[in-house]
C-alpha cells in the first residue's frame, strides 16, 4: 500500500507552512485509507454501542473491595484497640492522631493501590492468576510503605493492628474476588460477559483455536466468526470444520466482518497470510477503546512464567525459558510433599482406620492393593491403594479392555467395571481408595501433585512426547484429574500432563490440591 508523503520547504512563507490541524487531518485520512484497504467502505462506528459489562463488573468489584476493607481494617482496630484509641508518637511534641484516622487513610490508600496495580482491568479479571498476583503484590508493597513511613515519622503503630489487618485483609480480598470469579464463570458459560472474537488466519489455525476456546468458556473469549484467506463467495453459510463458527469474510474484508458479527476483538491465529504491514493497517482500522487486536503465537501448552516478551528492534520477541526440573524448586516441592503428606496422615488416621475396616468386612482379601507402577525416570515402585476389586481382578483386565475396544490405548480404564466390590464403587467415586498413597508420598516414590502413575504396559505404548511425563514424580492428583478426570480422552490427558511437567510450580500445586478437594466433595458422574 502506497502512502503519499509531502515535504514542505522550511523556507516557505509563514502563511503557507502547514499548521498542526492539517497534519492531524492528514493522519486521520491515513487511518481511513488503512481501513478502506481492508474493508472497502469504512464502517460507521458512531451508533455502535460500546460493551459495558466490563465497566459494570469492575464497579461491583470496587464496591466489594471497599466493603471488605472497611470490615477488616475497622474490625481489627475495634477488636484490638477500640474505636478512638490515640496513636503514640515517639516525638512527644507532635500532634496525636486516633487509630480511626489511620484506618480511614489505610483503606483509601489500599483502594488506590489496587487501582494502580491494575487489579480491576478487564484483561486480568476473571481468568488466570494475574489478578490474584496483582492484589498480593500491591498489598505487600502498601504495608511495606506504611512501615517505612511509620519509622520515618516515628509513629508507634500497634504491631497486632498491622500483623492482623495485613493477612486478614489480603485473604478476604482474594476470597471475595474468587467468589466474583465463580459468578463470572457461570455467566460466561451462558455466553454472557465475554469478548466477542473474530478469528483471522488460516483455516487450520483458526479451527484449532476455536475448538480450544470453546472448551474453556470461562476464559472470556467467545468466537462469533472467522475470516479465512481465499474463501470463495457463497450464498450458503460456511463454517469452520467440525464447528458451528461461521466463516464470514476474507482477509480483505476483516473490518466489515467485524461490524457484521458484532465482535469487539480480532485474534490473528497465523501470521503467514498477514505480513507486518497488513497487521499494522488492521490495528489502525480498529476503534480505540472498543475494539482490540490480539496475536496468538504458535506456542501451545506453555505457562506464563516461562514466557517473557521483549521489544527488540521494533519486534515484540517472545522468549520461552527451557523448563527446569532441578535445583531449589525440586527441593521446595519435596519439602512440601513431606510436610503435607505427614500432616494429612496424622489428621486422616481415624478415617483411614474406618475405611480399612469397611474393606476388610465387606469382601474377602487383603485391605491394601499393591500394584507396580512406573515413577520418576522410569523407576518402578509399588503404589498403595485400598482394595476396591475382587482378588485376582488384574487377570481379567486384558479381556475387559479388548471387549470395550481400548486395549491399544495407554489409559487402561474399564467402564462399568464388573470387578468392583460392594464398597469399591463408593471408594472410587470419592477417591477415598487413594488415601494410602500418602505413604508413597512420604517415602518419596510419589508427589502430592504430578502426572498419574501408570502401569509398565501403558508406558510401553507411549510416544516420544508422552515419555516426558516421567521427568517428574507421579502424583496422587494432577492437572488432568481436576480438569475432567475419566471423561477426558488420552490425547487431552497427556496434553494436560505435559503442560504440568513443563510449567509446574509450588503455587500451581496448591491450586490443583484445592481443586482436588472440591472434586472429592462433589465428584459428579465422571469419577471412577
Automatic annotation (TrEMBL):
GO cellular component entries: membrane
Membrane topology of the entry: Multi-pass membrane protein
UniProt GO molecular function: phosphotransferase activity, for other substituted phosphate groups
Start-end of Low complexity biased regions: 8-22
Cited Gene3D superfamilies: NAD(P)-binding Rossmann-like Domain
UniProt key word Cell cycle: no
Top-rank lineage group of the source organism: Bacteria
Localization per Swiss-Prot or TrEMBL: Membrane
TM regions (residue ranges): 61-83, 95-117, 138-155, 161-180, 338-361
Keyword DNA repair among UniProt keywords: no
Chain ranges of the Bacterial sugar transferase domain: 333-521
Keywords: Membrane, Transferase, Transmembrane, Transmembrane helix
Region (Disordered), start-end ranges: 1-22
Recorded family membership: Belongs to the bacterial sugar transferase family.
Protein name (database record): Sugar transferase
Species annotation: Cryobacterium melibiosiphilum
